[in-house]
């Protein structure tokens, strides 16, 4: 009997290592997750004001989906892209699904595609 228990104890981890338990509807969870994220980003963006600092935006909104840095003659521009709308159901976030926030020398100077086009 001890041998059987020992054999079961040694083989159980190997036999069970490939098991995955999924509960609930993962599609609706994923959908709700990105919808919540987009809504939250849109809500924060609607409360932005010019001259807010880069640091205060990061504290409020968290890590951006994309981040760019442009060095120009008149200063340093940083662009943060936050996902605000879905365009394709491919599970990937692309820049066209994001709203850009444009900073010059650490201060917010605008947001949206028109603000981003000015530094292009």
Structure characterization notes:
A hairpin with a 2-residue loop joins strand 3 (98-104) and strand 4 (107-111). The chain has a domain at 50-120: Beta-lactamase Inhibitory Protein, Chain:B, domain 1. The N and C termini lie far apart (75 Å). It has helices at residues 2-16, 26-46, 54-61, 113-117; strands spanning 66-72, 75-83, 98-104, 107-111. The protein is 41% helix and 23% strand. Pfam families: DUF3192. This is DUF3192 domain-containing protein. Keywords: Signal.
What is the level-2 CATH architecture name of one domain?
2-Layer Sandwich
Query: Tally of extended strands?
Result: 4
Helix content: 40-55%
**Strand order within the widest beta sheet:** 1-2-3-4
Report the span from N to C terminus. Answer: 75 Å
Structural class by helix and strand composition: alpha+beta
How many DSSP helices?
4
Using the alpha-carbon principal axes, give the shape: elongated
Largest sheet: 4 strands, antiparallel
| SS strand fraction | 15-25%
What is the top-level CATH class of one domain?
Alpha Beta
Mean pLDDT: 82
* Oligomeric grouping of the chains: single chain
Order of helices and strands: HHHEEEEH
Low-confidence stretches: 14-29
What is the CATH topology of one domain? Beta-lactamase Inhibitory Protein, Chain:B, domain 1
Nearest-angstrom radius of gyration? 23 Å
């Amino acid at each position: 009997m001890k041998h059987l228990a020992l054999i079961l104890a040694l083989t159980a981890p190997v036999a069970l290592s490939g098991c995955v338990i999924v509960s609930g509807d993962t599609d609706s969870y994923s959908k709700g997750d990105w919808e919540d994220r987009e809504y939250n980003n849109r809500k924060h963006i609607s409360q932005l004001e010019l001259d807010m600092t880069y640091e205060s935006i990061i504290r409020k909104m968290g890590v951006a989906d994309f981040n760019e840095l442009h060095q120009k003659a008149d200063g340093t521009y940083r662009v943060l892209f936050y996902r605000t709308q879905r365009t394709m159901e491919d599970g990937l976030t692309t820049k066209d699904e994001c709203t850009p926030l444009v900073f010059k020398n650490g201060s917010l100077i605008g947001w949206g595609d028109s603000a981003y086009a000015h530094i292009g």
